[in-house]
Write a structure and sequence with these properties.
By secondary structure, the chain is of the alpha/beta class. The chain is built from 22 helices and 16 strands. The chain has helices at residues 8-16, 28-35, 55-59, 62-73, 92-95, 109-117, 137-141, 176-179, 189-192, 194-207, 221-229, 237-240, 253-264, 275-285, 299-308, 315-325, 368-378, 381-391, 398-404, 407-416, 433-446, 459-480; strands at residues 47-52, 79-83, 104-108, 144-147, 150-153, 156-161, 164-168, 212-214, 242-246, 289-294, 326-329, 334-335, 347-348, 352-361, 394-395, 420-422. Strands 1, 2, 3, 6, 14, 15 and 16 form a seven-stranded mixed beta sheet that branches. A hairpin with a 2-residue loop joins strand 4 (144-147) and strand 5 (150-153). Helix 11 (221-229) crosses helix 21 (433-446) and helix 15 packs across helix 16 (315-325). The longest helix has 22 residues, at 459-480. The chain is globular and about 70 Å long.
């Protein structure tokens, strides 16, 4: 781990003079006034920028390409970017004040905004970002905070994170067009509706007890919460800004809980804990699983696992075959009834919890101008497109998303239709995970209990479980205060 001593007293006084983060859409004079203490345009000389990046970007080689390109361009200015060589989940709030930590951090909006509340990341003059007008307002809003009645922006969006469905096209039944395409739209029923996926999972496992259809850890709050959102549940009140109101049990969210229980019933007991979360890549790769749910940035990892199983082919042939057979698409629709065992009369979109990953600059950096230069470079069209091509992300830049096409465009459509619920950028969101995991774990366990021991026999039982989960979250938030 690289350690660097920083001028904490200087930064502290600098932060006291700043309200929070640069205002999105503010005029140039206002932005300049707010940021002049840190971003005066005077590049620091002979400095090394330590960048904390996503592990996948490092493993797949994208980060090396990024810093190599940056270092080549700015070598003459004596500016160099290097890997911060820290765990991607390192806590800037704890490490920064003591002189440890990166200059630039890549993280999800809820993490960065947690740092923003403690003034651990710098306000950004976002008018300097090349693709500022190419990034949708909903993505910028994920990095906004209000201080003294003014709205400021604390990070630069890079990619939209939202659950997507991964499946193996080569594992579809040979007769799927005849038997698994009821509406004849040339889309397999099992990837179009959760009812279809439920039925197919039963059939696949019945034909071969070692094979499964859809497999996903139900205890994962991030992925499972979307089923509650689909039927009217929400995280916090006032568009996820008021944690005094927890609404995961609102409206007909009980139907979403029931659907999760039904999906668990066509899996095995690995869905109760994190087992499927960790083995989904290899199990999809070897064909044990037909489908799973993950995020767009894991595309390259799934691809690599499938390639490994194409023995007898050279690397290029294996890669091409894997790309042909791995499909990443948006989530299937849900039955309005919330019952996967009966024919659906009406389908509704599956909502999901999402987030926006992006770059922020540490308040403890001794080279804020050089760090901003790196962020500007890393978020240009060329680098975001390369990131999308190498990692399979859904770009936050509309121009890149349009050129990449496919699922990226579908994710934007879902974002525009409010089918992606961005994680609240408030500290209280940290209190939803443990109670949520406890509830969803219990739902998954219930699928494997005997009829006499089942806890969730009707919607009232699910309602009681949801109420208890919300109560635990509210109590945890009060304790946090």
């Amino acid at each position: 781990m690289k350690k660097r001593l920083v001028a904490i007293m200087l930064v502290s006084s600098m932060m006291l003079s700043m309200a929070g983060c640069a205002k999105n859409g503010a005029n140039a004079d206002e932005v300049k006034k707010n940021e002049s203490a840190a971003f005066d345009g005077k590049l620091e000389k002979n400095v090394t920028i330590h960048v904390l990046e996503n592990d996948t970007a490092i493993e797949k080689g994208y980060f090396k390409d990024l810093i190599d390109a940056f270092n080549k361009k700015y070598k003459s200015k004596g500016i160099k970017a290097v890997d911060a060589n820290m765990d991607q989940y390192s806590d800037l709030a704890k490490d920064g004040p003591y002189g440890y930590g990166p200059d630039v951090i890549y993280q999800a909006n809820d993490v960065i905004m947690k740092y923003a509340q403690g003034k651990h990341v710098l306000p950004l003059p976002i008018d300097k970002i090349e693709g500022h007008d190419k990034i949708p307002n909903c993505a910028w809003k994920a990095y906004e905070t209000k201080v003294d009645g003014k709205t400021y922006t604390c990070g630069v969006p890079v990619n939209v994170q939202a659950p997507v469905l991964y499946y193996r096209k080569d594992l579809l039944p040979e007769d799927w067009k005849e038997k698994w395409d009821k509406n004849k739209d040339n889309i397999p029923d099992m990837v179009e509706t959760w009812k279809g996926m439920y039925d197919f999972s039963i059939q696949r496992h019945a034909e071969d007890a070692s094979k499964y259809g859809y497999m996903k850890s139900i205890n994962d709050m991030y992925f499972s919460s979307g089923f509650l959102f689909s039927y009217g549940g929400y995280i916090f009140g006032k568009n996820n800004t008021d944690p005094t109101k927890v609404g995961l049990n609102a409206k007909e969210s009980v139907k979403g809980a029931k659907v999760l229980n039904q999906l668990a019933s066509v899996m095995n007991e690995d869905c109760i804990d994190d087992t499927i979360t960790t083995n989904a890549y290899s199990k999809l790769g070897d064909g044990t699983y037909f489908a799973t749910m993950s995020t767009p940035d894991m595309y390259s990892t799934f691809l690599s696992e499938i390639e490994k199983n194409y023995t007898g082919l050279d690397k290029k042939e294996a890669e091409e075959k894997a790309k042909e057979n791995l499909v990443m698409t948006t989530l299937p629709t849900l039955p309005e009834s919330g019952d996967l065992t009966a024919d659906s009369k009406k389908e509704i979109p599956t909502k999901s919890m999402g987030g926006v990953n992006g770059y922020a600059i540490s308040s403890y950096s001794k080279a804020p101008n050089a760090s901003l230069l790196f962020v500007e470079f890393a978020t240009k069209y060329k680098m975001i497109k390369k990131r999308a091509e190498m990692l399979g992300i859904a770009p936050a830049r509309k121009d890149v998303a349009s050129d990449v096409g496919g699922t990226s465009q579908q994710i934007y459509t879902n974002l525009d239709k409010n089918n992606i619920v961005l994680m609240p950028s408030v500290t209280a969101v940290s209190q939803i995970w443990t109670p949520g995991q406890t509830f969803f774990t219990d739902i998954a366990k219930d699928a494997f209990r005997t009829d006499a021991d089942k806890k969730y026999k009707n919607l009232d039982d699910y309602s009681s479980g949801l109420d208890e989960m919300c109560k635990q979250i509210s109590e945890a938030i009060k304790t946090l205060k």
